[in-house]
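Anyone? Bumping this.
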Amino acid sequence: MGTHSPTTPAAAPVTLKEYAERFRLHVHCPACSHEAPLNVMRWARVIGWNAPLETLRHSVRCTECGNNVGVEVRVSERELRDQQR
Ligand SMILES: [Zn+2]
């Protein structure tokens, strides 16, 4: 389509690192409805910062009930710098 749009966003995040830098990540379990912030540091050690988020989606399990079927990684639309408490 258009060769240049006025608001070209930065390249879409792909890796765990890129997501972690820009967004807050949550894990949601369909089995028990548990939702928790993703422990990014822990997962970075497991799959590596440069692993695509897709890898994470296949690896996470619920910390509450241990379910690993259909566990969702949710990306918060709010950027990290907006978070002020
Ligand atoms: Zn669960």
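Late reply, but here is one note on the structure posted above: The chain has one domain: 16-77.
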